[in-house]
Design goal:
The complex is a heterodimer of chains A (about 90) and B (about 450).
Chain A lengths: L4 H17 L3 H13 L5 H13 L1 H6 L4 H18 L1 H4 L3
Chain B lengths: L9 H9 L6 H9 L24 E7 L13 H6 L3 E2 L2 E2 L7 E4 L4 E4 L12 E8 L5 H10 L9 H9 L9 E4 L23 E3 L16 H20 L5 H24 L6 H7 L9 H13 L4 E5 L16 H21 L6 E7 L2 E6 L5 E4 L3 E6 L7 E3 L1 E2 L6 E3 L2 E2 H12 L8 E3 L2 E3 L15
Parallel strand pairs in B: 1-9, 1-10, 6-14, 6-17, 7-8, 7-9
Antiparallel strand pairs in B: 2-3, 4-5, 6-13, 10-13, 11-12, 15-16, 18-19
The chains are: A mainly alpha (about 90), B alpha/beta (about 450).
Amino acid sequence: MLNDPLVHEQASEFAERLARWARDPRERIERAFLLAFGRPPRSDEIAEGLRYLDQVQAPFRAAGEPDDEQSAAAWSSYLRVLLSSNEFVFVD
Amino acid sequence: MHRPGFHLNRRQVVRSLLGGSLVLPAIVSELLARDDAGDLHRDPLAPREPQFAGRAKRVIFLFMTGGVSHLESFDPKPELAAQGGQKHNGRTLLAPQFEFTRAGRCGTPITGLFPRIATCLDDICVIRSLTGSHFEHFQATLGVHTGSLTVKRPSIGSWVSYGMGTENQDLPSFVVLAPYLPYAGTQVWSADFLPVAHQGMRILPGAEPVPNLRRRSVSDDVQQLELDLLSRFNLRHQSRRPADPLLAGRIKSFETAFGMQMAMPEALDLARESDATLELYGLERGSTEGFAWQCLVARRLAERGVRFIELIDSGSSNNWDSHGNMQDHVPKAKNVDQAIAGLLKDLKLRGMLDDTLVVWTTEFGRTPHTDGPTGRSHHPYVFSSWLAGGGVRGGMTYGASDDLGYEVAENPVHIHDFHATILHLLGFDHTRLTYRHAGRDFRLTDVHGHVVHAILA
């Protein structure tokens, strides 16, 4: 599912939507959880998200993503994982 | 409508109904202990020893879709030839449309439809008394694969995967090479109530055999970070939902998919196969389709530890269903003959035929009387299939139909018996390979099945 074109497309549109919503990454993560899972993130989940967005910058840079794209690429990557997760795919 | 708490599985329901009581915990633990889902934390695909030493370690299952005529392939009927054109019970009998010859040292009869398979008969055990219980494609196809004609049940490949696990964790345990969807569609390789990891994985001939396998992330590093984060998300989510087999199955499928990114392209890459091998199968270099491609890939998957490999030759149309004219069997036979013979010879050459069971079957045979002017209709009451390798005695025929090929005359082998025998060759007592589901133990053979000991080597 991480490799599905639809998931990639939706994740990058999701990223654009969040970017329009807020600048603060913490607020974006909260919004993403509410939209995807219908619940706010716990504080450790916010911290994990921020850490991930930071971590994933380097490999994107190494892969030659242009500088202004980096942040969008990192957000798309993070949101792909959200959309591929069991919590998103299964309804409790 | 979303109803919180409504989608509980059986274990959770039992817990919530009874768990609060002081008196009942013993009953609860008894009920839960008897549910096979208790095995969830074990890796479902880890290799497991069978119940006893079986002769076969893996299966290659060749399924001919549409109903191959026993009367034009493996079951010679001179009496039907003599009575062709005459009436029998109000129907017009049709003489066999292809000549039989005896082939191999064993002298097993076979028609000119399969000139190459004819050269392998010393390794083949032809069963001429197979019998099924349904005359429609959908139900009969389901029956051959699951033992059930109506309700959906796990496929034989899923049962074998469940019983034995698999030797290569980077590849699925049950792979289906099918260019077209067969009758009953994906139900044919469904794991149904068995853990999802035992589901057959379909590979399509052509440029992208496994859709979306290639990573779309820009680099391995990015993909690795994404998979790590995903697994943390999923494990946290699962820890609050104990014993949901679908969640565990989906986590497992990501692990297998990651392993497959390397292992599957390698398994499907035929570049290093010699010209002699390609010629044996009748495969043009560079071609990624056709039954020859399916057979060669099957050998490569078998070498790499895949437990059950099913090859389906055609789909729910343009298949062996020759109602109007038996000559329509010719292109179907030509499509598979050399490839199957190539597979048998190649396996033998590599010393793999001894522990690889090759099964050739179809959903039913065809009527001794006409349907269209020179065609035949569906006939489940008696038909032919064959087994080779994996502890089967080659160069023999087993069972017989009556003079006209209508009914079994001796040694009937019902589909359930066929299944019981395949499991036996793998080292399983079919009555003891069970899975507890919905309150009872299920098996591939339901309450039927007898091992056909006479065909064991």
